[in-house]
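Annotated sample (chain length 129).
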Amino acid sequence: MNCRQFEDAMRSEFGSADREEWKIRITRENWDGIPPSEHMTHLVGCVDCQTSLYQFLDVRDFLAYESHPCFHVAYYSADTSDRCLKADRSGVYLTYTENGGGIVIGFCPWCGVVLPTAILPHLDKSQVT
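Output written by the structure step:
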């Protein structure tokens, strides 16, 4: 199992998990008594996925990360205290700049997945024939 497969399965594997219990497990690296599975084996050995799961537990009720290229850009562009990206209407991801603009990024800074970079003009319905 790789990280992408783990993150894709977080909702099915941990969607109803006890948030506080799992946050304590992750923080203390306490893996005693967890049911054996491919997902748990990966989690125990991958600090990056431990971080993703920790974040997922905070946003699972309002973040539809499955509609983004990866969990990282979904999380870091969502309405969270850690937000450092903007999701443009065209589907591109931008870093924040001091003047309120942004720089289009082509790869996720955390996992390297390719991101869309084509900025399409926003058309209103009167312009569509």
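Annotation: The longest strand covers residues 93-96.
Annotation: The first helix runs from residue 3 to 8.
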